[in-house]
Amino acid sequence: MKRNEDLFTRARNTIPGGVNSPVRAFKKVGGTPRFIAKGNGPYMFDVEGNVYVDHVLSWGPLILGHCHPEVVSAVKAQVDAGTSFGAPTELEVLMAEEICNAIPSIEKVRFVNSGTEATMSAIRLARAYTKRSLIVKFEGCYHGHVDSLLAKAGSGAMTFSLPDSSGVPREITSTTAVLKYNDIRGFNLFMDENGDKVAAVIVEPVAGNMGVVLPEEGFLETLRQSTLEHKALLILDEVITGFRLCFGGFQNIVGINPDITCLGKIIGGGMPVGAFGGRSDIMSMLAPDGPVYQAGTLSGNPVAMAAGLATLKVLKRENPYPILEKTMDEFVDEITGAANKAGIALSVNHKGSMAGLFFNEGPVNSFDVVIESDTKTYSSLFHHMLERGVYIAPSPFEAFFISNAHTQDAMGKTIDGMKEYIMTRV
Ligand code: HOZ
């Protein structure tokens, strides 16, 4: 059977590159993308019936694994009641209350359909609020495919060695300054010179789109302090980290209160969703209360809200975060121990249930170090794992995730596959 290959050939006739999001095409690692038929718990099944332990988890949303029964039944019930109204629903109110309670810096929140829409709307709002144009972002941080944020944008762009996208006018990216992640000195110098022109500084508090890179001590604190001093806004892009590292944002863990937070992924329980929220005086500038226009037919979609609410309910009740952290710690100990013994340079950055695997001496603390990693070795690891029924990201610049459904059996398979690979390199 070669249904994956056949489908990929057919897909390329009618879909650019055969995929609806570039990293899925396996270009960086080579080979044929797997066309997925279904998922269950920690497992995914392709159209040929192969089963994989899934460590992509839809790029983050599936913290409960595939098809959690409570999420499935909430979605089914909502589908029976109607899939879209283009009018307000009680579910949106419940979800907004849940988010405002979990993340204290969010006093008001608006729902959209993706992380991209969330960051795009957040920067429009920041520009309107501050009456300034300049946005500061950091190398390797990805905030969706918003024109002005597609500069050294990590992830998909890095995978294809595209520092910027064609089709984005220079006039637009010229309103974006790109600085180095974790470079406190460089940031301070920039702000001393330009701080009064900056509308907002946007950052992934744990970078999850150049692999995983953790913020060094003082980095996020400096961003907060400096933006306050220069009357610029701080936007935390918690599309990946929101509800993944604790019940709330990473900001709850580090005690940083941004002006605006962007969310997505987990709050939609696997359905398309995004959100941006923050201080009430800022959010009230949005139409219909204020002059900043932002809208969407499917925004706050009831099926997405139902899936998200069910996911948050389980997370609140079960508090899986300590177990997820323990499972990840054990995994990292096992593979880094094996790599050390074998004399292989493997650095694993990890926080809670997300990790970045780099074939690199480390420490991997910036984009410059990330791109020095041995990506060929990552590709060969990828194929070794795929053959053994473990699906890791088809790009060295994406995160490795685990879910609450990743049992010892599933993790055992991943650890064995990785150790076996490491032994082949000795
Ligand atoms: N680069 C995206 C995640 N960080 C890929 C999304 C997708 O292909 O679905």
Structure notes:
- With 426 residues, the protein is an alpha/beta fold.
- It folds into two domains: 2-63 and 320-424, Aspartate Aminotransferase, domain 1 (Alpha-Beta Complex); 69-317, Aspartate Aminotransferase, domain 2 (3-Layer(aba) Sandwich), CATH 3.40.640.10.
- 39% of the residues lie in helices and 15% in strands.
- The chain has helices at 3-14, 69-81, 90-102, 115-130, 155-159, 170-173, 184-194, 219-229, 250-254, 280-283, 302-318, 321-342, 367-370, 375-387, 408-424, and strands at 36-40, 43-46, 51-54, 108-112, 134-138, 176-179, 198-203, 233-237, 260-264, 274-278, 347-351, 354-358, 390-391, 400-401.
- Strands 4-10-9-8-7-5-6 form a seven-stranded mixed beta sheet, with helices on both faces. A four-stranded mixed beta sheet has the order 1-2-3-13. Strands 11-12-14 form a three-stranded antiparallel beta sheet, with helices on one face.
- Helix 8 (219-229) links the parallel strand 7 (198-203) and strand 8.
- Helix 3 runs parallel beside helix 11 (302-318) and helix 12 (321-342) runs parallel beside helix 15 (408-424).
- The relative contact order is 0.17.
- The mean pLDDT is 95.
- (4S)-4,5-diaminopentanoic acid is lined by residues 21, 23-24, 59, 155-156, 209, 398.
